Amino acid sequence: MSLIDTAPGAAQLQRLLLLLLLICVSPVTAVAKSPPPGSGTTIAPMLEKVLPAVVNISTRTRTKARRHPLLDDPFFRHFFEIPEGGDRQSQKQSLGSGVVVDAGKGYILTNHHVIDGADEITVTLRDQRQFSAEVAGSDPEVDLALIRIKAKNLAALPIADSDQVRVGDFVVAIGNPFGLGQTVTYGIVSALGRSGLGIEGYEDFIQTDASINPGNSGGALVNMNGELVGVNTAIVGPSGGNIGIGFAIPGNMASLIMEQLSQYGEVRRGQLGVVTQDLTPQLAQAFGLQRRGGAVVAQVTPGSAAEQAGVRSGDVIIALNGRAVADAGDLRNAIGLLRVGTAVDLGLLRHGNQLTLRAVIADPLADSASAEIVSKQLSGALLGAISDDHPLAGRVAGVQVLEVKRGSPAWSAGLRADDIIESVNQLPVSSLEELTAAVGRNGDALLLKIRRGNGALFILIH
Q: How far apart are CA 339 and CA 359, in angstroms?
């Protein structure tokens, strides 16, 4: 379970203010819960069909236990007759939930953080059958994972069209809170489209007041028809428990991610090649527009899919494939769910005139290169242009470290994925060509200026 939670102090006060803000802007606040309309006094008949499809997940992770440095000293080991090897290992266990979404293939949706790094994954069904699971694919950016078990007579949940969910709809949360076993709570949809919380890379959460607690991660949020409308993933809770604000990944987003995970084992995200910002009332007035909602194109990446489609700086993107774009975050989420090579229709406003352009989502790795070509000292890293969804896109110039192989020379030197190389030997670089030229001037020692998150650092490589 991902929690928005901190230790007491200024950080906690800041989070509590966020909590108050979420409550204040929520269009609906539930004071008391009544039975769902048309359910009489019970929803048991619906739950009898749903519960067999929700599973409990337990994981086991082995880690090397820390030991005293003297145990690595050969003389010390010989003197006290301590045998070689026999490194101690500790085991970490965690609990979560999952939802069977394909009975025939044994596919189960859960959260990435539930199974991340696990050496063993055990799935327990409602009928107490237990199975070992394997990971079919995982996407940390959305916090979803697809695991597979070999089992017969499984029950699966149909996935609802989450775009049809409305604030005020009754929903039921099912999971394994605190390891107690399968538990059901119900409430309403409190808000839709929650984003900007900093919980995941791509956020478009359904907010609910149905009780969600640690252990519910990966569990089901279902409607009164017994359909999956969301995958429970996070809560706001200063004490680590439920206070009536929980978040679920919408079913439509989960479906798109699941499709890619089952086919590729990962999400092959494409990019449009634009840097955008929200169309605020002030910007709308400056552009002479009488509307709210949309994403203003601040920058178009040269050679990108957007440039090839004819998108210009100053355009306002108001729709993607006929679906309205609320703001820059909404556009980023929508593009981030599309596969490389997908054709999209962009609805634009340009100088007050509406037009539609066709773009093909590009592969962000198409123009990437192995850093080993640039320098053997950087082998193990993959370099490329700054991607659209990088937090620093449009704010800095440089070359992005797209991937770093653990244990490689680049990793040992201190490079990490998503670092931005701003300069080499004090020469600014904004492209792979410029970086290669800067390295070529003095390849014996490399002084790299790196932007990492909100900070900066220098890395010296000999």
A: 13
